[in-house]
Each structure stands twice: as C-alpha cells, then as structure tokens.
Design brief:
Strand content: 5-15%
Shape: globular
Family: In the central section; belongs to the 3-hydroxyacyl-CoA dehydrogenase family. Belongs to the 3-hydroxyacyl-CoA dehydrogenase family.
Low-confidence stretches: none
Number of strands: 19
Keywords: Fatty acid metabolism, Lipid degradation, Lipid metabolism, Lyase, Multifunctional enzyme, NAD, Oxidoreductase
Catalytic activity: a (3S)-3-hydroxyacyl-CoA + NAD(+) = a 3-oxoacyl-CoA + NADH + H(+)
Largest sheet: 8 strands, mixed
Protein name: 3-hydroxyacyl-CoA dehydrogenase
Helix content: 40-55%
Pathway: Lipid metabolism; butanoate metabolism; Lipid metabolism; fatty acid beta-oxidation
Radius of gyration: 28 Å
Number of helices: 27
Length: 690
C-alpha cells in the first residue's frame, strides 16, 4: 500500500513552464523549462508536492518533443531555493516524509538518466533542492547575478535529501562537498557564483546581462561537440581522512548535539563507494528520521523567526513618521564607534562624522574606517570607486559643533550614566530640533539618560552587538518618553543598516545581555561554590552552544560582564549575584583563555567553597535560571512575545538553530513548566508535542 503524500494546503505552486527554443546551429529546438511560481523575487521558487508534479510533467513533455537538449532555468533572480518548508508541519507520519523524499528523487533522477542531454542554467539563487535538481543535470552554467548557491539543510536540522549528499562529493570531491554541506551551513555561509565555478559545481560562468543567450549558445556547442567539458577526476584516496578530520571538528564544536550534521557525515561516507540508488535510498531514510525529530522542527521554527518575524518587527510605529537621515554623527572614535561609522557610511551612503576628546583618538578612528575599506578593496569585496566615495563620507573632529546639521546622532562611549547624560546635555544645545539622539548603551536606562533633557522624546536606545558588521541583531529600546517619530526613524535606519530590529522596553540590560548575565551569574555561582572551572566550562556541551562559557566571557570581556552584572545586581539582587571570583579576574587583568585553553593562572586565582556541583547540576541550574528570567521578562513586557526573546538570542547570542530558540527548548525539556508552572509556546510549535 502506497502512503499518500502530505497535503500542503498553503503551497504556492512553482510551475515548470515549457517552451521550445530555436538555437542557432542546431537542427532541433531546445526544450527550455522555466521554474516560476508567478510571484516576484521576494517570493522565491520552491518545491512542494504540486511543484514536483509540475516539473515531472514538463520533463515528460520535453522528452516527447525530441529536442536537441533539455534545459532548466528559473524566473528573474531566482532559480529555486529548495523544498517548500512551509509544508513541513503538515507531515505528521514518517511514511509521508519518505514519500516526499522518494518523489523528489524520482523526478530529479529523470534529468540524470535522460538520454537527451540535460542542462541547468542557474540564473539566480539556487539553494537546497534547487541546487540538487541542477546537480542531476548533465551540465551546469551559473550567472554572475546568482545571489547564493548552497545546501543549507544541516542548519535547519535536515540533510540534503534529494541527491545532494551523493552527487556533490562525486562531482567536486569530498572536501569541497563537506564545505558546502557542513561547514557553510553551520557558519551561515553560501557559495558565490565565481566560487561555485572554481569549485566545479558549475561548468561555466556567464555575465548576468546576457546569461540565457550565452548559456543556450554554450549548450549548443556542447551538444555539437564543439565545446568539451573537462572535470578533474575525484580523488578518493583521502576521502576517509577528510571525513575523519571533519568529524573531529564537529565533535569539538558541537559535541554531538546536532543530529543532522552527524547524518550528513554518514551520507558523505556512503557516497564514496555506494551506488547512486543505495545512496539516495539512505538519504530518504535519514531525511524522514530528521523531519520527524524535534531538532528539525525546532530548527524550522528558528528559521521562520529569522526569515519572517525579523523582517516584520512587532510594535513599530507607522513608517510614514520616520524622519529622513542625511547626516550621521557618532560620539566617540573607539573601536565600537569606528565600526558604527563604517556601517552607517556603507549602508546609508551619507556623511558620517566622529568626535572624541582629542585629535589623536579621532584620527585613529577615521584611520580604522579607511583601513577596513582598503582591506575590502584588497579582497575584491569592494571596487575602488565605491571605496573612494566611502572614504570621503567619513570624517572626524574634536568639535561637537559638527553635529549641528546631523539628523541622527549616536553615542558609543563608556558605560557611565553620568557621562552619557552630560554628552546629551551638550548635544541638545547643538543639534537641530528634530535630530534623533540614539544611545548604544548595553545595560543603562534610556529613560534616565534622557530625564534632564528638554526633549527626551527623541532619545532612543540603539543597541548593537559586537562585532557590528557580523551580528545582525539590533535591540531598539523605547524609553518612557520616546515618541513615535523617534521610534519609527530608529526602525527605518535599522532596516537601511540591514539589521534585524526588535522593539524592547527600557528595562535593565534589555534582552540578550540580561539573559547572558543571568546565565553567567549561575556559572560563577557554581565556581564560587567550589566547582572546578573545567567542569563548569563543559557542563553546557550537550546543548551544542556555539561557545563554552569561559570562551564567551573572554569574547564579551570580563570587565564588561562585571559592569553589566553590577547593573543587574543593583536592579535584581535576589537573582543576579555579585561574584568575588569574577571581580578578582577583572582586577588581575588576566586573559581567561590561552591557546584555546583556560588560562592556568586564572584556575589558580579563583577560590571556591566546599559545595561543588556536578556538570548536570550546573547545566540544570543555568537552564532553570533562564526559564525564570524569561518568564519575568515576559510578565514585565520587555518584549511583545516569547518569539522575540528567541529571535534576540538566535541573532544576538548565537543560540543554535537546532534548539529552535531558548523558549522551545525549555518547553521541550520540561524546564519551563517545572520552574514557572507554564509553557512559553503553544503545543505543536517548534517540535513540541501537539
């Protein structure tokens, strides 16, 4: 008995549109199949059951037409971004997952086994199943305008399930395949067209302007024998060694906590000697197991947050209230301020001016920005014309009067409330009446900062995360008197900066720093109780967090962690401890890590009590503390919903996709109900039982 495919009630069907195209030099026409869901590039092509059926029918009709070759391409800017993951929640039985996997394999395999030459003209983004269908074609061209290519499934708790794990390593070698299937997804990277051509994923690279015409001509040359496609033979001697090394790296980073990564490794190992049929059958079984598991559903929840909720932040005032920003002022010229200057200049393309206490500091900040621009030119990431323009946009001064015509001024100075209040008092006499005043404070009250100003309504929190160019989160904090115009402008600027902005109430340390500090407080409570640093540092390994606690503290900076901790200890002394050991580490000025190991001098420095905890106890105490703090934050209205906390932790703290966010993990583990008496999310969400 054949199991019915899952129903995708909301599937936006990607149609496979067939037309016969006359190509110069060929007696027969080419059969060109264009994938198109009828929407613009903002709604990419994807494959659900109906989309696969449409492609299946198009291949049949193309084959019956007896063309010189069959070619597959996409709508403008988009080839195909893979499976329609919006239908995953409707897969309720493992047999349905198997059926979907087998359908994709059967349809795609027709392109691989075709006696008529098949080509993929990758004109735009090709991800997941989109790249996999192209790998089934005999030949591939790629456009310079293709935004991204890759197999990102591992990052969302799945594996390339439609042939990618078997075809790619046998096309470009297992080392390149491991990069595309494992390393890139776990570091949120994709292939660019030139890189795809260099690795051998594509056979030819053509300019976007005449991509289709050039691809048709090239394909005709291949068919006639005028063009010979040469592919280096895949070296299998190092296959096992490459995968052994890859597994070591995964174990060191993830500690076995990501099932999809381990499954992908197994499939890459199988691809060395297994037949294509056996390999793809194993893919189907692995995919079905993962689809029905908690991790994939949690990952899809996280993916939905990043792709949808992050682009439609909750609580944003009408965008028509936003004021135009034609010049940006930055108070400070240190590292954070310099990073901000570069970001604002690149994204807003308006003059950016920095100020500091003396010319030496100002010059150092401006030189940093220009040095980073030069590095981008050197790496080919920016042309000289753009670089010259950006250099001209960034300037510095010791005189704050340069802010007189700035529309948006942000301060990035030391975390001292009196200092920040003094700065705003000075600036309010200089800037125009409608200029927005933003603070990059990580923990101080925006309301208190603006309390003595004549116009506190235009002060808004604008909290970036370090490194500014890498981390996408921007916490936008509404003070008690911040008005809608200031808030709308802040969100408009955040969007132009290409950041994912979340509206946050003016509460101590906001979201990410409050939770990380509560977490750190529990870590140091265990250390103060006598738990060895090595036990504390590895206690969270089963979660597969991106960094261990001590390395995270090193990245944040012990002095910064101590300052934020003191702020929260004053606000909530019953929950945020004041660790003597953390203070000793800061006073000693010792690095926490040396050669990726805990500094022995730090180990010798800390003093603990006589009640050490086990690793399991450390982990559970930390999770219990997070559950309690999140419930309190939601009750206080720090953010609109639990989803916003999850989004902040994913984008600002690197909380892993495979856990789905903090709140669904706490729900699934039972921690939420045990600690707070209730769940954070409804049943059936993010891998929670329905």
């Amino acid at each position: 008995m054949t199991t019915a495919l899952p129903e995708y009630p909301n599937e936006v069907v990607t149609q496979a549109l067939l037309r016969l195209v006359k190509v110069p030099g060929l007696d027969k026409p080419a059969a060109l199949i264009t994938l198109d869901n009828g929407l613009d590039y903002k709604k990419p092509n994807s494959f659900g059951p109906a989309g696969l059926a449409s492609l299946d029918e198009a291949i049949t009709r193309a084959t019956e037409a007896g063309p010189a070759f069959i070619a597959l391409t996409g709508k403008p800017y988009i080839f195909c971004v893979g499976a329609d993951i919006t239908g995953m929640p409707f897969i309720t039985q493992r047999e349905q997952a198997v059926a979907l996997g087998e359908l994709g394999h059967r349809v795609f395999a027709r392109l691989k086994s075709s006696t008529i030459p098949t080509f993929a003209f990758i004109n735009g983004a090709a991800l997941g199943g989109g790249l996999e269908v192209s790998l089934h074609c005999h030949y591939r061209t790629v456009s310079t305008g293709a935004a991204a290519l890759g197999l990102p499934e591992v990052a969302i708790g799945l594996i390339p399930g439609w042939g990618g794990s078997q075809l790619l390593p046998n096309l470009i070698g297992v080392a390149g395949a491991a990069q595309v299937i494992l390393q890139n997804p776990l570091t949120q990277k994709v292939l660019r067209p030139k890189q795809a051509r260099e690795m051998g994923v594509a056979d030819e690279l053509f300019e976007a302007a005449d991509f289709l015409e050039r691809s048709l001509e090239w394909a005709a040359g291949v068919v006639k024998g005028d063009v010979t496609v040469q592919r280096p033979e895949v070296d299998k001697d190092m296959w096992d060694g490459v995968l052994f090394f890859a597994k070591q790296q995964l174990d060191e980073r993830l500690h076995g906590a990501v099932p999809s990564a381990n499954k992908a490794l197994e499939l890459l190992a199988l691809a060395k000697d297994a037949s294509f049929e056996d390999g793809t059958a194993a893919e189907t079984e692995a995919l079905a197991d993962l689809i029905m598991g908690d991790e994939s559903r949690a990952s899809l929840y996280a993916f939905d947050l990043v792709q949808r909720r992050a682009k439609r932040p909750v609580g944003v005032p009408d965008r028509s209230l936003a004021r135009k920003v034609t010049k940006v002022g930055i108070v400070g010229a240190g590292l954070m301020a310099s990073q901000l200057a570069l970001l604002f200049a690149r994204r807003l393309q308006v003059p950016v001016v920095m100020t500091d206490l003396d010319q030496t500091r100002v010059d150092k900040g401006v030189d940093y920005v220009r040095g980073q621009i030069d590095k981008m030119v050197g790496k080919g990431r920016m042309d000289e014309g753009t670089a010259a323009k950006l250099r001209g946009l960034v300037s510095g001064s010791v005189d704050k009067s340069v802010f007189a015509d700035a529309d948006f001024v942000i301060e990035a100075v030391f975390e001292n409330l009196d200092l920040k209040k003094q700065i705003w008092a000075e600036l309010e006499k200089i800037v125009g009446p409608e200029a927005i005043l933003a603070t990059n404070t990580s923990s101080l009250s925006v309301t208190e900062m603006a309390a003595d100003l004549e116009h506190p309504e235009r002060v808004v929190g604008f909290h970036f995360f370090n490194p500014v160019a890498v981390l996408p989160l921007l916490e936008i904090i509404k003070g008690e008197r911040t008005d809608d115009a200031a808030l709308a402008t802040a969100f408009a600027v955040g969007k132009e900066l290409r950041k994912s902005s979340v509206l946050v109430k003016d509460a101590p340390a906001f979201v990410v720093n409050r939770l990380l500090t509560r977490f750190t407080s529990e870590v140091f409570h265990a250390i103060d109780a006598g738990t060895p640093l090595s036990v504390v540092d590895t206690a969270l390994d089963p979660l597969g967090l991106p960094m261990r606690p001590i390395a995270l503290l090193q990245l944040v900076g012990p002095a910064v962690a101590l300052h934020v901790g003191e702020t929260l200890h004053r606000a909530f002394p019953d929950r945020f401890g004041d660790s003597p050991n953390l203070r000793k580490i800061v006073d000693a000025g010792l690095p926490l890590m040396v050669d990726d190991e805990i500094n022995p001098e730090v180990v010798a420095l800390v003093e603990g009590g006589s009640a050490p905890l086990t690793a399991d106890e450390v982990r559970q105490h930390a999770l219990d503390a997070l559950a309690q703090e999140i419930r309190l934050m939601l009750d206080e209205g720090v953010v609109a919903e639990a989803q916003d906390i999850d989004l902040c932790m994913i984008l600002g703290a690197g909380w892993p996709f495979h856990l789905g966010g903090v709140t669904p993990y706490l729900d699934r583990s039972g921690t939420s109900e045990r600690v707070t008496g209730q769940r954070f999310l409804p049943r059936g969400v993010a891998g929670l039982p329905a």
